[in-house]
Amino acid sequence: MQNKETPSPTGVTAAGPEAAAPGARPWWLGIAVIILGCICLYATTTLPATAQYAAIGPGMFVTIAGGGLLLLGILLLIQIARGERFEAQDTENATGNLPMDKRAFFTALAATIVPALTMEALGLPITAMLSFTLVARAFGSNKTIIDLITGAILGSVCWFLFSRLGLQLGGFLPLAGF
Question: The whole model's pTM is what?
Answer without folding.
Answer: 0.53
